[in-house]
Amino acid sequence: MYLKHILFFCVLFSLNANSQLLEHDKDFRAADSLLKESSFSAHRDNYFLTGVPLNSDINRNSADVKYQVSFKQRLTSKPILGGFFPYLMYTQKAFWDIYASSKPFAEINFNPGFAMVRPFYLKGGRLTYGSISVEHESNGRDSIYSRTWNMLAFSLKSQVSPRWTVGLRGWIPMVDKEDNPELTKYVGYGEASATYQLKPGRWSADILFRKGSGLINYGSFQTQVNWKPYKTENYYLTLQWFVGYTESLIDYQEHKSMLRLGFVLKPENMGIF
């Protein structure tokens, strides 16, 4: 009788131990997806694009170059605080009136931040990154040309299938209303993104939708098609269309529609958000 009870508890302990080992193995494999990447790596897309407006006259002053430099630094090789990895991030986006006579920079937006990233697997083995970040974005100017805001952001990004990666991101904005009247109305409180591998290793498409706080008048939509000329290289030729508000901070109240062509360097993995 006692032997049966002992055997029963041994089986329960074994099942529980195996379950814990499986969960530990999942956590290890999820963390390994971040550790496979160099500690210093691309954060968002790095690109150099040139284009023209679709909703106004095309001339030397309306055509431009848009480029972005974005990188991140993982601060530890081991997770802390419940499996989170700490990151420093920096993104700089510039709008260059390269076709104008004096070739001035119309705007440069600076976006440093700090993030805690937790890799894990959803049901079905879908690799997912959850993150909490504190970020600042401004154009580095003063007086009436100053544009600045801060945010506390939360995001989830998941590889839901071999071809689809989707993301949701929301933020609590902190805005100086004197310098940036109604900026929150235009930047909104969140965004959704998706990447689809049209032909894995060659063709992909990206979509980014940001909802403004207005009912229908604010927000933005950006989509692009990417073609990789060489499978062994990590750069793409890209056709990008942006329509909406807040492509740049200086003109956040101005509705724009821009079609641009150029090249982009993407993060090696799916990116943390």
Automatic annotation (TrEMBL):
Repeat is among the record's keywords: no
The catalysed reaction is: a 1,2-diacyl-sn-glycero-3-phosphocholine + H2O = a 2-acyl-sn-glycero-3-phosphocholine + a fatty acid + H(+); a 1,2-diacyl-sn-glycero-3-phosphocholine + H2O = a 1-acyl-sn-glycero-3-phosphocholine + a fatty acid + H(+)
Task: Give the membrane topology, semicolon-separated if more than one.
Answer: Multi-pass membrane protein
| A Pfam family | PLA1
Alphabetical UniProt keywords: Calcium, Cell outer membrane, Hydrolase, Lipid degradation, Lipid metabolism, Membrane, Metal-binding, Signal, Transmembrane, Transmembrane beta strand
Q: Which residues form the signal peptide?
A: 1-19
* Catalytic activity, EC: 3.1.1.32, 3.1.1.4
Entry cofactors: Ca(2+)
Q: Give the first-level EC class, as a single word.
A: hydrolase
Q: Where in the cell is it found?
A: Cell outer membrane
Indicate where this protein is primarily found: membrane
Note the superkingdom of the native organism. Answer: Bacteria
Record-linked InterPro entries = PLipase_A1 (IPR003187), PLipase_A1_sf (IPR036541)
PANTHER family given for it?
A: PHOSPHOLIPASE A1
Q: How does it assemble?
A: Homodimer; dimerization is reversible, and the dimeric form is the active one.
Describe the family membership recorded for this protein in Swiss-Prot or TrEMBL: Belongs to the phospholipase A1 family.
Please report the name of this protein according to its UniProt entry: Phosphatidylcholine 1-acylhydrolase
